[in-house]
Design goal:
The complex is a heterodimer of chains A (175) and B (417). Chain A is an alpha+beta fold and 175 residues long. Chain A contains 7 helices and 4 strands. In chain A, a hairpin with a 2-residue loop joins strand 3 and strand 4. In chain A, helix 3 packs across helix 4. Chain B is globular. In chain B, helix 13 runs antiparallel to helix 14 and helix 15 runs antiparallel to helix 16. Chain B has 3 domains: 218 residues, Rossmann fold (3-Layer(aba) Sandwich); 83 residues, Ubiquitin-like (UB roll) (Roll), CATH 3.10.20; 85 residues, de novo design (two linked rop proteins). The chains are: A alpha+beta (175), B alpha/beta (417). At the A-B interface, helix 2, helix 4 and helix 5 of A face strand 3, strand 5, strand 9 and helix 13 of B.
Chain lengths: 175, 417
């Protein structure tokens, strides 16, 4: 059974206090769970449900609805590339092409070494600096293929020695 | 020049996010004055009504009127939800406020809560707003430590807690009742109205929901007075508006304009026109839900009524400029892909309609379309336009009608004989 660390548990209890109803903390606690475990497994849903004293189905309904909760482990560096209008006008597809050509992955997939995953994103609300993407929680803007190559290289150097990724590649999320 | 600096006045200072620097530029002064002079809450609501401040999230509902709907004698607690779920494609003006001048928004929140009798405010922020979250949480911490928020503010006996609540990647949660469901820990399905949130909102209690930019206007109304503020705009739209312009323009960005300036001025005089000497093909004037305007239709005042008269909408003030090289069917496919991805699934005609329009648009781009597909998409659009629980169905229907009726030749050109 998956357990939150003590520190996260304390954070979770403080969050629950802020709301007039415990169940309102489902999304904040799922964010905490994802931060701690990397993704939202069924065990993570159960851990959230137990802390909140709600049925696990209430948590699962929410984790399934919201796009940001990963149902599979993403790569250590999760590239979230905006493909909406303004970013498309200024080259989002060439960014996604670079990722396919150089990392061998499409939206919803992870590299075999578990370092990088990529996902197509809807508008990130920074259209004036298009094309844009998030790498984990950092925003990167005015992307070009060269800039992306440098960002990826930098992260490869930072990363510890590769471990095999826990799961195989997954189907694209695209409709 | 139609450009003006009111809400955006302090965006230029990188230290404006720090409380001390913000205070030195006049932040929180109106809040302190409201408390020190014990201005009656009803007088503030009247002032905001007279200022003709309208909701800046897209719908343009008069803000003071909205506040007035909250029952005064309710025994239940009341809540404020600040809608910081900025997700309408092309829109990035709330991000500018959240990242550059969080104290301006928070001062507006404090004055609003005092006026309506609210002691808990939630800032519902989209989950991808990592940087705005960091900035806002720090600003709340600093303001609370300085006695501007929290318990017994400035010795007035008034309490106010402000809580940042992060969403998790669902455009639909920008719709106010979906936002409420999301805040309560449900999936973001919009609610039927009535009852309206002012009466039955968050946790079953009376709730005011206002956009970030609307909140940022409130301290300026208190500083300038309703008459001065209203005069910056038009008779029905008081004050200023932040426009977010992107796409094929020389200087994309957020620009503050007086209400009623023209779209053409914004594109050519303010944002520097199109780069590379290219010609304009079309403009999406109010976020991706707004029907497209052709190049010869852009001499229209940027205010709610005039844009409606031009067959489109001011929406969130997000302007996307498309130059002559753009393929309209491609932009349309990107738009449809977005709504297909973001339809919450509650109403059949929206869930199925958005998905089918997206699939047909892809088929046309792949060269497998036929002329009757255009009628089919218009029919699907008609089935969801104004016939769903929330406006997402219309947000797909309106651009569908706009693109197909104004640029049918571009779609037909992709079809074999």
């Amino acid at each position: 059974m998956l357990q939150f660390s003590d520190a996260t548990r304390q954070q979770a209890l403080a969050l629950i206090e802020k709301y007039p109803r415990k169940s309102a903390a489902i999304i904040p606690l799922l964010h905490l769970a994802q931060k701690e475990f990397g993704w939202i497994s069924e065990e993570a849903e159960l851990a959230v449900a137990q802390l909140l004293d709600v049925p696990v189905v209430s948590v699962r309904e929410v984790s399934g609805f919201y796009f940001m909760f990963h149902k599979h482990p993403p790569g250590r560096y999760h590239l979230q590339v905006c493909h909406n209008i303004s970013c498309s006008l200024l080259g989002a597809e060439t960014i996604l092409d670079w990722i396919r050509e150089h990392l061998g992955i499409e939206s919803g997939q992870t590299t075999p070494d578990g370092l990088f995953s990529v996902e197509r994103m809807e508008c990130l609300a920074c259209c004036d600096r298009a094309p844009a993407m998030l790498i984990n929680d950092e925003l990167h803007v005015h992307l070009t293929r060269d800039k992306l190559a440098a960002l990826v290289e930098e992260r490869r150097r930072q990363a510890p020695p590769p471990e095999p990724h826990p799961t195989d590649n997954h189907e694209s999320m695209e409709t | 020049m139609p450009q003006i600096s009111l809400v955006s006045k302090n965006f230029q200072y990188p230290d404006q996010v720090e409380l001390q620097a913000a205070l030195s530029r006049g932040a929180w002064e109106q809040w302190k004055r409201v408390l020190a002079e014990k201005i009656p809450p009803a007088a503030i609501i009247e002032e905001v009504k007279a200022a003709k401040l309208r909701g800046q999230g897209g719908a343009g509902f008069p803000t003071g009127v909205k506040w007035g709907f909250v029952p005064k004698d309710s025994p239940k607690p009341k809540y404020l939800c600040v809608n910081a779920d900025e997700g309408e494609p092309g829109t990035f003006k709330d991000r500018a406020i959240l990242e550059n001048d969080p104290h301006l928004m928070l001062e507006g929140v404090a004055i609003t809560c005092y006026a309506v009798g609210i002691h808990t405010a939630f800032v519902y922020m989209r989950g991808e707003f990592y940087q705005p979250q960091r900035v806002m949480e720090k600003a709340i911490r600093e303001a609370t430590e300085a006695g501007l928020l929290g318990k017994n503010i400035q010795g007035s006996g008034f309490d106010l807690d402000v809580i940042v609540h992060m969403g998790a990647g669902a455009y639909i949660c920008g719709e106010e009742t979906a936002l409420l469901n999301s805040l309560e820990g449900w999936k973001g399905w919009p609610r039927l109205k009535p009852p309206f949130p002012a009466v039955v909102g968050a946790f079953g209690c009376p709730t005011v929901i206002n956009n970030v930019e609307t909140m940022a206007g409130v301290p300026h109304i208190m500083r300038l007075g309703a008459a001065e503020f209203q005069k910056l705009g038009t008779e029905k739209d008081g004050g200023t508006k932040l426009f977010a312009i992107s796409g094929h323009v020389a200087k994309p960005g957020v620009y503050e304009m007086t209400m009623g300036s023209s779209l053409k001025e914004l594109i050519y005089d303010v944002a520097g026109g199109l780069p590379g000497g290219r010609r304009l093909k079309a403009v999406i004037p109010g976020g991706s839900s707004a029907p497209v305007l052709k190049a010869d239709e852009i001499d229209v005042p940027l205010e709610f009524e005039a844009m409606a008269a031009a067959g489109t909408m001011l929406g969130s003030g997000a302007v996307i400029v498309l130059d002559e090289t753009v393929s309209i069917p491609e932009v349309f496919m990107v738009t449809a892909r977005f709504y297909a991805h973001e339809s919450c699934g509650q109403c059949t005609q929206c869930r199925e309609g958005c998905t089918w329009i997206y699939k047909i648009s892809k088929k046309i781009l792949a060269g497998h379309g036929q002329p009757s597909d255009l009628d089919l998409m218009l029919d699907l659009a008609d089935n969801m336009n104004g016939k769903t629980v929330c406006p997402l169905g219309a947000a797909m229907a309106l651009p569908t009608i706009g693109f197909l009726k104004k640029f049918p030749h571009e779609f037909l050109a992709l079809m074999k004989s």
